[in-house]
Amino acid sequence: MNRRVFLLGTACTCAATILQEHLHAMSSWVAAAPNTAALRQAGYRADKILACYTGAHQLLAEPIASSMIADTFSMIAAGNDLKFSNRLRPAPDVFDFQAGDADIAWSEQHKLLFRGHCLVWWNALPNWFDSYVNAGNARQVMIDHITKTVEHYAGRVFSWDVVNEAIYHDNRPDGLRRKPWLDFIGPDYIDIAFHTAHAADPKAKLVLNECYIEHDTPAEKSRRESLLALATGLRRSGVPITHIGVQGHLRGNTPLDKPGMTEFCKRLRGAGLEIMITELDVDTINVPADQQQQVVAAKYGEFLDLVGPYVKIITFEALRDDPAYPRNPDGGILCRNLFGVDYQPGRVYDSVVDSLKRLATHSVADFQE
Questions:
Q1: Which of 238, 246, 342, 356 could share a disulfide with 42, CB 3.0–4.6 Å?
Q2: Model-level pTM?
Q3: How far apart are CA 72 and CA 79, in angstroms?
Q4: Would residue 151 show up in a list of annotated catalytic residues for this protein?
């Protein structure tokens, strides 16, 4: 189950139920793990770290998926197991690291890097949050959560998404999202979060992760400018931020803003900030059923050609098209990924491999011509 499903409120809070659902889905068909050497080799030759979102449910209950992840990728990211949510924080004074511990132990067993997601977010907060957190205690609640979580895994996590989706259209000149953290603490909650994470693990890379900045629409252009101003301002003021996460939740029916994204990447790199692609997938909303495979595959390639030259790490939102995903009105999978429901590669896989091959043989200037 991926994090778009979580965001839509369909993620289950009970680990046992998640495992049961996935095992039931697997029992309805038999699939063989494909040979993913082409993707692995293309990533290596392009000098990219390829990563995949996953979690304890998939790593422990889907042997085909876990084998493919171990064989294909150099990093995994926690999808839902380390969010500030019911799973990790079942009560104000309780931390349940069981799922996160399983994720990191698996990554270490298979010699993969690990990315933690996410420490501070506006969504998926625990059930007790609204009745417990207020302007008087929010700062300490946030600091305690970050400190205990990052210290628990200190030295074992390559990077943390420290603040996730800080930008929104809340009628503020700075573009910052108000609820809940800004309303409780003020805009410096972002500075505090990064300084706290750095103090808990000085070696971890620290990421400001943001969504919906890639397309050629007024709203996404505005969001991109707000993110750029925030990121460069944090950097200038000495906040220990190292990376900007470009989520890459792409829409098959909306053009990318190629000039805008190119300028955005250049300015971030010029400010001394690295860039990651952190949640790459493509949805098929309002794309005719008979065109979806072609449109989605083309959008993956187009985006990687555009942003790939500026990034080292490319994280895919999910390994495969899960049978439990929400569906389009036409019955098709809502968000398409590297592999189909049966774990077999298709046009998306081929498009990503081809783009990585281009990245291995061309410079940034070549892609801008």
A1: 356
A2: 0.91
A3: 18
A4: no
